[in-house]
Sequence to fold (386 residues):
Amino acid sequence: MSDERHHAMTHAGAPASPQGEHLLLQGVTDYAIYLLDASGTILSWNTGGERIKGYTGSEVIGRHFSCFYTPEEIQHGVPEQALAIASQEGRYETEGWRVRKDGSRFRAHIVIDAIYRDGGLVGFAKVTRDITEHYQAAAQRRQAEQALAQAQKIAAVGQLTLGIAHDFNNLLAVITASLDLLPAAEGRRRQMLVDAARQAAARGARLTRQMLAFARGQSLEPELHDVNALIGSAAEVYRRAGGPITQCVFDLAEADTRVMVDAEQLEAALVNLVANARDAMEQPGTIRIATRITRPDPALHPGAVAGRDYLYVSVADDGPGMEEHVRQRAMEPFFTTKDVGRGSGLGLSQVFGFASQSGGFAFIESAPGEGTCVTMAIPAGEAADA
Fold:
């Protein structure tokens, strides 16, 4: 042991004599603790080393410590690299597979400390701990987590399939009924049946686009657009999407709201958000579509670029709001609180995907009794100058 190590053990209350240190190290059975010379030859051995690795002191003292390494690591020079790092940095710590006397392998946590005397390297102190049980338990836990995740994916796909099937059945029922009644209909009723079939087909096409967007990402065609103007031109669409029990109002920023965006996909995202807000309303209320320019805090919004202004496009309602666990999961694909057949669980994930593909991000603010606000943040400034 080095003079410094001997001094530290003395002041810590450990036996100061070489005999005392030897007894102390021999009493340690959970760790293999031994000394190496500067070339890696084993100089000492303790009871822990014999218990973990199966060698007695007489069998390993004088041998190179690489005898504990796997053939693959020996071939790649790992033992020499470990000593080189320890000599340069004073300490080397790692985890890996090691070989016992009987040829079996165990997972080890290894620490190698360089020992210096008078400024020169004289050897190394090496400590090895058998962590095989901990490593295997962690591996089993990871396997269980992966199996659970896979089971959840399968369940989610099943839930999605059921929801999609119900949605398409409902749409097909409307189309089929309209076509069946069409030959006998005349005048205004005939036009109503045609409109109903056309609207059902349009909803089916939108649902198909959502599925395709989820499966491979929607293909955006961004151009420079004034978002306030886009919202204003489609105001009546949003009012109709809000339904008869809601009032759709607009709070648009008095600022330059030109950004690079796919106008059609932005409108589809807003219609999705308005429809979600409508479905959440349990009694007459207000849906508010708003825009504003702001510089978000990256600490609160990891998707934001520091120093960049963003155009916030939000849809808020004064409905019942969400519990926190629902808010956190609301953006997940397949997740929905709607009854079977009323939603595929892809609406919000499409909105979040659109915001991300547009170079921005999206987030939800909600609390029980305080309504819900979903915001899409789209880069402004530099993006608008493109």
About this structure: DSSP finds 14 helices and eleven strands in the chain. Residues 27 and 69 are 25 Å apart (CA to CA). Residues 1-17, 339-345 have pLDDT under 50 and may be disordered.
